Amino acid sequence: MNKLISHYMLVVEDEPIISEKIVKKLTDFIDSKKIKLANTVAGSLDLLDTCKFNIIILDLNLNDGNGITILNKVKEDHLKSLVYVFSINSELKNICLKKGATAFFDKSKDFDDLISTVKTAYQNIFNESDSVQ
Predict the structure, then answer these.
(1) What's the pLDDT at 4?
(2) What is the number of other CB atoms lying within 10 angstroms of the CB of residue 22?
(3) What is the pLDDT of residue 128?
(4) Where 4-aspartylphosphate occurs, residue numbers (predicted)?
């Protein structure tokens, strides 16, 4: 069995301004070395094959496809990641939740809620495991 490199978070977002804003807020409570970025479906799938993530922030509308492909992989591979969908495409909210997303946040208005929720989840995971290696 391959040993996966452990990272706490994966941010999947193809808009550089938005991904920078997310990472800036995340680094208030997590070391930036524990955050991986991907801006395509293909790049995300590659990272999921080589890294273990506690939390994934997932945009749906990516240049090379739909983030639901990534959500499907998390479910099919029985990954224990919490997946927070962050998208403007709210019509897909119910589909994402049925496919195993932890929560759905509207990109047009829920940024602060997303960060707050991720921070709480991160603190809960960190407290439960004492030291994640």
Answers:
(1) 60
(2) 23
(3) 63
(4) 59
- Domains located in the chain, CATH noted: 8-128 (3.40.50.2300)
57-113 confidence digits (pLDDT tens): 999 999 999 999 999 999 999 999 999 999 999 899 999 999 999 999 999 999 999
Number of residues written out for the chain: 133
Pairing of strands 51-58, 5-12: parallel
Q: What pLDDT is stored for residue 5 in this prediction?
A: 61
Report how far residue 79's alpha carbon sits from residue 85's, in angstroms, rounded to the nearest whole number. 16
Burial class (CB in 10 A: 0-12, 13-18, 19+), 62: buried
- Which amino acid, 39? N
Residues whose CB is less than 8 angstroms from the CB of residue 106 and which lie 6 or more positions away in sequence, other chains included:
87, 88, 90
- Name 58's bridge partners: 12, 85
Q: Which helix (H) or strand (E) holds 25?
A: helix 16-26
